[in-house]
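## Example record

The block below lists the input lines for one assembly entry, exactly as stored, with component labels intact.
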Amino acid sequence: MSDRIKITLPDGSVREYDSGVTALEVVKSIGPGLAKAAVAVLVDGRPVDLAARLERDAKFSALKGDSPQGLEVIRHSASHLMAQAVTELHPGTRVAIGPAIEDGFYYDFDREAPFSSEDLEKIEKKMAELAAGDVPIERREMGRAEALEHFRKLGEGYKVELISELPESEPISFYRQGDFIDLCRGPHLPSTGRLKHFKLLSVAGAYWRGSEKNKMLQRIYGTAFDKKEQLEAHLAKLEEVKKRDHRRLGKELDLFSIHEEVGGGLVHWHPKGAVMRDIIETFWKAEHRKRGYQLAITPHIASEEIYRRSGHLQNYSDLMYSAMDIDGRPFRAKPMNCPGHILIYKTRMHSYREMPYRIGEMGTVYRYERSGVLHGLLRVRGFTIDDAHIFCRPDQLEAEVLGVYDFATFLLGSFGFKDLKVYLATRPEKSVGADADWDKATAALRAALEHHGVAYQLDEGGGAFYGPKIDLKVLDPLGREWQCTTIQFDFNLPERFDITYVDESGKQVRPFVVHRALLGSLERFFALLVEHYAGSFPLWLSPFQLAVLTITDAQTEYAKTLFDKFEKLGFRVKANFGAEKIGAKIRDAEMEKIPYMVIIGKKEEEDKQVSVRRHGQGPFDKLRAGDVGKMTVEELVDRLNKEVVQRG
RNA sequence: GCCACCGUAGCUCAGCUGGCAGAGCAGCGGUUUUGUAAACCGCGGGUCGGGGGUUCAAAUCCCUUCGGUGGCUCCA
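Predicted structure tokens for the full assembly:
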């Protein structure tokens, strides 16, 4: 048939083609430049191959390699190329799954011998050869029986399993490049020659379909980009991530340590880390008092009876440390702060007039995390939650949620996190509470966000079992998301502990309870700060704020008086009056990332001034680094004070 | 927990196919008194993660154990 079809382009224009025209021909007719850049096309929003034939009217747009969907096509094709290289280099290797992921792609293989890093290099070389061969990548559909037969003959059991689970109705598509055929929905690049900029990164174990019950496969991770510069930028970013790693900086800057003798996931804060933590806590407490919170302190171990009552024992026993016998009663390390706060609330009657009742604590808890998931300060077994519980009347809920949201953005913003993402998580399958209550609470959370004009994403079914929640994630300079704030509505505890307040009519009624943490865990938040600032902390947080450095012994006396003066003014000062040259002292202070260096030589002593040098704040703030020039002590103090106040 | 990789001086790391444990930095002692990212000389420091085995001989090969790291959700 030679019917004509109407193709609508993104700009709204409509063009006519013969039915059966290929996507590539359409793209070419739009422009040769586009034809070169296109990796696939969207037909009515669905990504398809350039070779696909168009047979009916459709909305049409080309996918270029620089778009997220285009990049996905490139990476998916790169994963196939890798699988082809692996099966050619290592015949007998069975292939499982190989999708594009956030920053690249992976492919899972089943093979007895492990892949070494030399193997990765060889595979990458083979991929380059295969790409240079510019083999066409062709789509084909097969009947179910034929497909099963084909992969069964090859011994590709994983593919057989996948095919048998595909719905009967759907056509089963395959992609072939040379001798390599893979089950795949597509789309793919038209030929392997389009893959130029890829890199294999690591190999790791991964269970078939993510389940511990299944066989462990070998997963090779890689990444691919449209342009060389993009690949290089990505690899540079990976280097930057390594440089900022809080475990590395924590050691280099003498902030904390974790000891095998003590056990994994248990953190020792060194004096310099502890100074920072103290600043964070002091600031946190002051801001809480300002906002009507009362502060509490609760014990680190408790009879397990309390956790049975709260429900934690039943729901989280595999996260709790096993019981210790105390006077014949089983006690547990505290996994949550909630029960303690509830007990404090329950010690007396509460009037509707004193609501909301807000109680907070830097509460240290202990949770058993499986050894394999421990990671620096980000995943630990003992940590401190900046916890608080708000008991309020139903009519106060929205305002309270809003208050917490504002507080969280203020607090996170104070630590340099201005980019936030907000998630509203709704009822999960396994949960407690009446539908009506869930609806009411979810609506209140939603209303708080919407009345405030907050853009948020819905996390359907992502709530806690005891209530819906709002989560805030911060974005760091490398674009990574970190969960910090959580605001959770709790249906569980008020019931379980039977807590009440007395309303206007004298009746005892159930309060609403909002559970919230703003920074999350102090350990985790601290790690985040280290990575965010790359160890170059702002003045108000820095363990040492200034270093006083002498040029020669002759200035020691004078420098000492300055040192004392700074200390008296409350600054955290380090003295270096040793015998090294000034260059070495400056280097030491720079390496330690001390924000200000105060240099005292003969000239400074004579005219009662100081020479000031500012440490760079990492790549995003190099400008104020270096020699700042001479000034009086008063001028410097003024400058320091201003900088501390603005927390920048 | 599971799979892979890694454990050598306080730190970062070298030590190839078995043949006397090394470097730089840090530390300590001395010399130097210095002008914006490393002065010079010297000294001390290691059961090569632990245990077992193979061998005339093991940091090196094998087994085992402990610890660390990466990963184990993202629809073929």
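Chain A has 20 helices and 35 strands. The CA atoms of residues 239 and 490 of chain A lie 42 Å apart.
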